[in-house]
Amino acid sequence: MPDDSRIKVALVTGAARRVGRAIALELAARGFALAIHYHNTPPPEVEATLAASRACGPAAEGFRADLADPQAIEALFAAVHARFGRLDVLVNSASAFQRLRLMEVTLADWQQTMAVNLTAPFLCTQAAVRQMRAQSPPGVVIINLGDHGSLEPWPEYAHHGISKAGLLALTQVTALSEAPLIRANMVIPGLVLKPESMTDARWSVVTAATPAGRPGTPEDVARAVAFLAEEPFITGAVLRVDGGAGLA
After folding, report:
1. CA–CA gap between residue 115 and residue 141 (Å, rounded)
2. Please, are residues 10 and 57 in contact by the beta-carbon 8 Å criterion?
3. Is the peptide bond before 2 cis (omega within 30 degrees of 0)?
4. What is the mean pLDDT of residues 158-173?
5. In sequence order, what are the beta bridge partners of 240?
6. 15: part of which helix (H) or strand (E)?
7. Where are the alpha helices (DSSP H) in the chain?
8. Cα–Cα distance for residue pair 95/248, rounded to 1 Å
């Protein structure tokens, strides 16, 4: 990476594919050096994301870690600091997604989902805040990726929705408790990527029913994340990128 203190560094978890990848590429295109976290993504996908990030940004490095393991999170932040020397943006994008109603959820299901969707962002937030406080200049922002379950009950995805509601609370507590040096915001994507279990016909029906009349894209979400990363007077915000679906 060029020795230039003006270059900001962003760590994006779950950044090697899907929405996380789009966020990483958008931040790279805006001049951020990228710490690209991944876990089980196949190596060719990781390498493709790294190559695309390096092609449009100042630097990109991949970091493998199991976010369900607290020690792996500590090692991740130590490695990012050793490589880049600072951290300006943390995007908690990695997420476990399991469709189960409340009485179908086992203790193992609950613990795994909470570990990835809530405990990991909590530990990543703490690690980022410690690093952001110590650097010069301090700051800037933590952005969490929520979803439908952050704002209202989601019985079909019981424990997932509960974890995302907790993530919203974490966002707001961080924004208040760590102000003014640290900002924290949440982006809530809508229908931007078809679930693997959904048929094309069903996807067409549900996306056409949004006020926008179409699905969004991962790039729509990525631009919203980048906006919140760069706008210094926004903290504690919840930005829906859902084509108006939340109005229904």
Report:
1. 22
2. no
3. no
4. 97
5. 188
6. none
7. 18-29, 43-56, 70-84, 107-114, 120-134, 158-177, 200-208, 218-230
8. 25
Q: Which pLDDT belongs to residue 5?
A: 57
Token digits of residue 142: 């933590």
Structure token digits, residue 31 = 């001049």
Cis peptide before 137 (omega within 30 of 0): yes
What does 118-158 look like in DSSP terms, one character per residue?
IIHHHHHHHHHHHHHHHSSS---EEEEE--GGGTS--GGGH
- Which tokens hold the place of 20? 């996380």
Distance from C-alpha of 218 to C-alpha of 202, rounded to nearest angstrom: 19
Quote the pLDDT of residue 158. Answer: 96
User: pLDDT at residue 47 above 70?
Assistant: yes
Quote the pTM value.
0.94
**Distance between CA atoms of residues 40 and 58, nearest Å:** 26
Which residue's structure tokens are 């915000």? 237
CB-based contact 26:219 (threshold 8 Å):
yes
3-state SS class at 211? coil
What is the pLDDT, as a whole number, of residue 2? 43
CA distances from 230 to 10, 200, 234 (A): 12, 36, 9
Dihedral, CA atoms, 79, 14, 162, 236, nearest 10 degrees? 70
Amino acid at 130: R
Residues 174 and 238: beta-carbon distance below 8 Å: no
Residue among 235, 116, 106, 244 nearest 171 (CA):
235
The pLDDT of residue 143 is: 98
Tell me the three state secondary structure of residue 51.
helix
